[in-house]
Write a structure and sequence with these properties.
The complex is a heterodimer of chains A (115) and B (115).
Chain A: E1 3-6, E2 11-14, E3 19-26, E4 32-38, E5 45-51, E6 56-59, E7 62-67, E8 72-77, E9 86-93, E10 104-105, E11 109-114
Chain B: E1 4-7, E2 10-13, E3 18-25, E4 31-37, E5 44-50, E6 53-56, E7 64-70, E8 73-79, E9 87-94, E10 96-97, E11 100-101, E12 105-106, E13 110-114
Parallel strand pairs in B: 2-13
Antiparallel strand pairs in B: 1-3, 3-8, 4-5, 4-9, 5-6, 7-8, 9-12, 9-13, 10-11
The chains are: A mainly beta (115), B mainly beta (115).
Chain lengths: 115, 115
């Protein structure tokens, strides 16, 4: 069955360091992959989308890589700040997911950035 | 007002009650969704209204009933719920096209507690 794995253990890093979060998937061939940020008790907020033919995408301090051979995406936050503390979710979409009902979400990884 | 608005933010209901969750999107998107999020679990898609087509997750109990009167409004009607239905219920919208779905905008969610 299709499966997405995100590290269930929280990631603790020091302010100013680069945070790297991992999203692995099996039995799936996504056309594109999305990353979201979720704060406690709130809905997820869309951050970045990367397509299968893109190796890397950047937005300000954020960088996402997508390796379809390894079946893995890495999400980096450079110069991390305490305000970056949140849960980060990855989501996969197949090609032609025109109905939007084939998206699969990971359970998320909690990030704590210490001052 | 912009984005996706959900009401109420918090709801406590007894197992014999009937209540409704409301969602409104101001983005002109053509698809709306209900997701359920339980602690430390991935988002679970419940219902989709997309391009005038309704799709539902067959594992969702009949005590949950969606209604989509137009492309901007979505309701989730609740009746005779069980304590295990306590969770964060998220509404989302997206714009879907020939290439697929390009990212979700989520509401802030309704924290539901069934007593």
């Amino acid at each position: 069955s299709q499966k997405i794995e995100q590290n269930s253990e929280a990631l603790n890093i020091q302010e100013g360091k680069t945070a790297t979060l991992t999203c692995n998937y099996t039995n799936y061939s996504p056309a594109y992959l999305q990353w979201y940020r979720q704060d406690p008790g709130r809905g997820p907020v869309f951050l970045l989308l990367i397509r299968e033919n893109e190796k890397e995408k950047r937005k300000e301090r954020l960088k996402v890589t997508f390796d379809t051979t390894l079946k893995q995406s890495l999400f980096h936050i450079t110069a991390s700040q305490p305000a970056d503390s949140a849960t980060y979710l990855c989501a996969l979409d197949p090609l032609r997911n025109t109905g939007g009902f084939k998206t699969i979400f990971g359970a998320g990884t909690r990030l704590f950035v210490k001052a | 007002e912009t984005g996706v608005t959900q009401t109420p933010r918090h709801l406590v209901m007894g197992m014999t009650n009937k209540k409704s969750l409301k969602c409104e999107q101001h983005l002109g998107h053509n698809a709306m969704y209900w997701y359920k999020q339980s602690a430390k679990k991935p988002l679970e898609l419940m219902f989709v209204y997309s391009l005038e087509e309704r799709v539902e997750n067959n594992s969702v109990p009949s005590r949950f009933s969606p209604e989509c009167p137009n492309s901007s409004h979505l309701f989730l009607h609740l009746h005779t719920l069980q304590p295990e239905d306590s969770a964060l219920y998220l509404c989302a919208s997206s714009q879907v096209g020939p290439g697929g779905n390009y990212g979700y905008t989520f509401g802030s969610g309704t924290r539901l507690t069934v007593v």
